[in-house]
Amino acid sequence: MKRVHPIAVGAFVALVQLVASGGEARDAAATTSDGGRVSFGRDIAPVLTTSCTTRSCHGGGEKPPILRRGMDAEALRAALVGVASEDRPDHAYIEPGAPDASYLLQKLEGRLNDAECTEHDCGDPMPLDNPSLSADTIAKIRAWVAQGARDN
User: Fold this and answer.
1) What pLDDT score does 73 carry?
2) How far apart are CA 25 and CA 130, in angstroms?
3) What pTM, to 2 d.p., does this model score?
4) Which of 2, 76, 135, 152 lies 20 to 30 Å from 108, alpha-carbon distance?
5) Percentage above 90 pLDDT, the chain
6) C-alpha 32: how far from its chain's center?
C-alpha cells in the first residue's frame, strides 16, 4: 500500500476546512500582533469608544446603533452582536463567525453601495467624521468577528 505524505494530508484537511467555512478559515485563526486571540475588552471596545462614540457619530444619540461614550465593554458588545442593522435589517451589525455578513465590517471596509440599504445612503465607509481606521485595526475587528465575537 502506498503511504500518503503527512503534509499532503494536512493540506487536504485545511482545504476541506476552508471550503466548509465559506472561505473564512483565514480569519478564524487570526490573532493579535502579540500572538494572542483577539479580545473584545482589550482590542475592540477601545476602538469603538475612540472612533464611534463621538458626538458626530453614534454617540450623538441619533444614528443607530447608539454607542454612548462611557459605555462599558459589555454594553458596547450588546448593542452590536446579533442586533439587526437598521439600514440592512437582513444583516446584524456583528454576525458572530461571519465577518463578510457583518454590517459593521461591510461599512468599515466600504463594501456597501447606497442601493443595498433601506435609506439608500449607507455607502460611505465608517467612520465618517473621524480618522479612518488602520488596515490593522480593521483586520483585528474582522478576526474578532471570525473568532465568534466573544465577550472576552
Assistant:
1) 92
2) 31
3) 0.71
4) 152
5) 37
6) 14
